[in-house]
Amino acid sequence: MKKRRGSTLFEILLVMAILVVVSALAFPSLRSMSSAYKLNAGVDSVRAAWAEARERAINENRPYRFAVERNGSAFRVAPDDPAYWDGGNGPENDPNGRGLILEKSLPGDVRFTVNGEGDVPDGPISDSLAEKPVTGGDWVPAVTFKPDGTAAEDVKITFYVRGAKLTSLQLRGLTGNVTVKREQ
């Protein structure tokens, strides 16, 4: 009796069919994990921007503003001085030194609202600051960090992405404490 060294065409097709079925079953759960990772990355980037703005306000002894793009996914941190928010990059000879200007976008398809104001688009979104820059008048102030480490007000930013639970980032103005809350 001879040893069989290969597989039949039927066996190969059967294995391929099983792989296709398993892949089709796994795809939705992998897609929802991707949405959750994007949402978490957006929350972390805003949280880091708040920490940077607060630290700069304390160290430079001047207020720093955190602003967002209306109904969008971009945010900006810069000194709370009109020269930094009128579309320019601040005064050339600022007596306090050159202030930090930080502009970032959330990961693709992630959007946010501030204190529940604004509409969140339902469709896919892929704009970044490089593709669609935000002009000076389109920034909506969300919170201002004072030189003593406090914020001018409490703020709540809610993050949205299709396939993931809503997540809110809340800043307590008096203490600068930040909490993350996931909707059930």
Which descriptors apply to this entry?
184 residues, alpha+beta, 4-stranded antiparallel β-sheet, 2 helices, 8 strands
Distance between the termini: 64 Å
Total strands: the figure is 8
Order of strands, main sheet, comes to 3-2-1-5
CATH architecture: 3-Layer(bab) Sandwich
- The shape, in one word, is elongated
Alpha-beta content class: alpha+beta
Quickly count the helices.
2
Quick structural overview:
This protein is an alpha+beta fold and 184 residues long.
Fold and architecture overview:
- This protein is an alpha+beta fold.
- The chain has a single domain, classed as 3-Layer(bab) Sandwich (minor pseudopilin epsh fold).
- 30% of the residues lie in helices and 23% in strands.
- The protein is built from 2 helices and 8 strands.
- The strands form 2 sheets. A 4-stranded antiparallel beta sheet has the order 3-2-1-5, covered by helices on one side. A 4-stranded antiparallel beta sheet has the order 4-6-7-8, with helices on one face.
- The model has no long low-confidence stretch (mean pLDDT 83).
What does the secondary structure layout of this molecule look like, with pairings?
Elements: H1 9-60, E1 64-69, E2 74-79, H2 82-85, E3 102-105, E4 111-114, E5 139-145, E6 155-160, E7 167-171, E8 178-182
Antiparallel strand pairs: 1-2, 1-5, 2-3, 4-6, 6-7, 7-8
